[in-house]
Amino acid sequence: PALPAAVAATAAATAAAAAAAAGSASSPAALDTSHRISSVGLARQGSVSNSLAGHNSSSSSGGGAGSAAGTPDGLEQYLKWAAGTHKDSNTVKVDVERSLHSFASFLAPEEREARREELRRLLNAVVTKHEGSVHYYQGLHDVAAVLLLVAGELPAFDMLCRMATGHLRDATRPSL
Q: What separation, in Å, do the N-terminal and C-terminal C-alpha atoms of the chain show?
């Protein structure tokens, strides 16, 4: 019940920040806007809260079917992947438990725990979605944490899926 309200509220905040970002990237106002956009990623509330209203993930995750688009079916599929287990589930758990200390030291303890839970879901969802072809490696949680803090959980999922099957492909193969 609270989830759709959280998603709608953060989508509105992110849309407002994105609209404000339409200015020049080199102006002082644009630099302030970049900070506000980053803050939107950090300020969102709710379990799976992000900026997905109207987001078409088929262009960012390599396919619309089963992607984390801002539809109820996409969210449901994401949560299934996030709840899935894989051979590196325990490593993900351990890495996430000790994450978000140094570069997210400004987070209150409860906020840090909430972000860790999102990070765990994010990593498990990416590996489970691409079961057998994408494997977790220690350090992937650091990449995922940056995406999560800046963009929010579901946009980070789309980005990390794309990175794990593209730019980071050599590191996510079964044999590193």
A: 42
**62 Cβ contact partners less than 8 Å away, ≥ 6 residues apart:** 161, 162, 165
Predicted pLDDT of residue 95 = 93
Please list the helix, strand and coil fractions of the chain in percent, rounded to the nearest 5, in that order: 60, 0, 40
Number of H helices, E strands in the chain: 8, 0
Widest pairwise Cα distance in the chain: 47
Closest CA to 78 of 41, 112, 118, 45: 118
Distance CA 63, CA 112 (A): 32
Q: For residues 103 and 146, what is the distance between their CA atoms, to the nearest angstrom?
A: 9
Model confidence over 19-58: pLDDT tens digits?
444 343 333 443 343 334 344 444 443 334 433 333 333 3
Q: What is the pLDDT of residues 73-107, one digit of tens each?
A: 889 999 999 999 999 999 999 999 989 988 788 88
Which of 159, 160, 152 minimizes the C-alpha distance to 52?
152
Q: Are 42 and 133 in contact (CB under 8 A)?
A: no
The backbone torsions φ and ψ at residue 133, rounded to the nearest 5 degrees and listed phi first, read -110, -20
- pTM, to two decimals: 0.63
Q: For residue 10, which of 56, 60, 48, 67 has the smallest C-alpha distance?
A: 48
